[in-house]
Amino acid sequence: MSRAKRGSLLASRLAWSLLAAIAVAVLAYGSIHGNPNSDKARVAALDGLIKCPACQDLSIAQSNAPSAVALRHEVSGFVARGWSDGRIESWVTARYGAGALLVPTSAGGGEALYLLPVALVGLGVGGLGWYLWRRRPGAKAPAGGGSAA
Questions:
Q1: CA torsion angle for 61, 64, 68, 72 (degrees, to 10)?
Q2: Between 20 and 30 A from 25 (CA), which of 17, 52, 53, 133?
């Protein structure tokens, strides 16, 4: 392979690697949500996080069950009194149990459940890239792999 062609191939690989790194960084940054600033936004975020006590897999924001409506009013009152999101989440889990939140808290290590699929996809893409790189035209065969005639 000529020197110019190798340089072009290397530049192409670097460009694709850089593009992949930027895509991963943008996706990671976009998946991190900051804390809402206003009380109304905090209440909405908490209402979407807390599971309805009388429903199956619905938040209190999605349900009109009497227990969900009452819990929405309690959450709104806690925010108005200046309670932190963590304190409200702790109160809800103490009162309704560990499954009272639709999203795991950061204290339990539940983030791994969300990061595991991303890591597996990343490993799969990396493995596929390595395999395709090894199978590219012009790749050297492993030493000692030839047949004797």
A1: 50
A2: 133
- Tell me the C-alpha distance between 80 and 95, whole Å: 20
pLDDT at 136 over 70: yes
Spell out a b/e string for 60-98, using b for 16 or more CB atoms within 10 Å of the CB, else e.
bbebeeeebeebbebbbebbeeebebeebbeebbeebee
Residue ranges and CATH numbers for the domains of the chain are 39-108 (1.10.8.640)
The beta strand positions in 87-126, using DSSP E, are none
Instruction: Please give the distance of CA 63 from its chain centroid, rounded to a whole number.
Output: 26
Angular region, 138: left φ>0, alpha ψ -120 to 50, beta rest: left
What digits encode the pLDDT tens for the residues 23-45? 888 887 776 655 557 888 899 99
| Helix, strand, coil shares, percent, the chain, to 5 | 65, 5, 30
Confidence (pTM):
0.50
